[in-house]
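Hey, I was hoping to borrow your eyes for a little while. There's a protein on my desk that I can't quite get my head around. The fold is given in discrete form, as structure tokens running alongside the sequence. I'd be grateful if you could look everything over and explain what you see. Here's the protein in full, and shout if anything looks odd to you:
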Amino acid sequence: MQSPQQRPRWFERLGYALPKLDRDARKDLLERVEVGSYGGIDYLVMMVLSSGLASLGLLEDSTTVVIGAMLVAPLMGPLLGAGLALAQGNLLLYRKSIGVALLGLSVGFAVSMLIGFLNPGFEPSLEVEARGNPDILDLGVAILSGFVAAYALGRPGLANTLAGVAIAAALVPPLCVVGIGLTNGQPMVAANSAILLLTNLVAIILSAAFAFMLLGVSGIKMDGKTGSGAHNWAQQTMLILMMVAVILLLPLLTNVVEQKRRGQNKPLTYPVAAHVQEEVEAYLDTIPDVSLITIARVSVEPSSAVNILLAAEGKLPVGLKDELTSLVRKVRGGNPTVRVIALQEVRE
């Protein structure tokens, strides 16, 4: 950390434009942040409920339910506590805040895993896909969310903006996508969502600390040349978090380049559940000269529509379409529309 004399001029000039908190306001801010970082039974109950709501909303592809889960999720509290602790050099508050955040993440992950196990045959929805392809824009959203949340917390008159920040930060939905994806054979979706979650966590803590420092919240004592040994941990921790953020830039930038190459990611089809594809593949293995190219749900039609694309060396056996339709309806449930399209292979 740097003393006021050591901080860059641009930092000082930016800080001049923001109203500084007086001693009573800083004390009140610390009390409010400590309340949000406390944890306790209410925190655990809200994590269970918000994670359950998010998981069910993701499975049902309900944007409304997912937004509701964001609003009631309590994870922002300990993350802001960690940011304030870095700004103040408050090691006790930092340990407490990180511990509470990790506890909440563990509870949310366990709830999403449980709901994933209880709902086998998960088919990735638009809500899930939206969190399975993070890019540099998501990092920008997280940075601004952390800054806005910290600034609003320091200015009580802006408290009504925190609900919007909770929606923008999107901490619980990507956490739940990780659990649901791992329990339903979607490891890449889970991995990409984990990158989004980690990006949000790191960016929110760092930007919140930056906002608190600009508001004049700083308990760092300096000896005139170097940081006090008791507060070196804050400088080292911020450096580590910045390094993690830089590392996360690699997959985020890669996704940006890929999206620029192929255009906006709005797929025409979504995959069916893994067990449905496995059953169809096993059945087609018994049919000579016929192989599966792909089986998918059409995104522009109701989710009950399933298309099966086959490759055949000759004419399809009589009744194959009816057999595939019956099989898909049996293993998938319901009464989906099944289209079977065959491409005839050209023999040299």
User: Anything to note?
Assistant: Residues 259 and 265 are 7 Å apart (CA to CA). The beta strands are 269-271, 290-298, 305-312, 337-344.
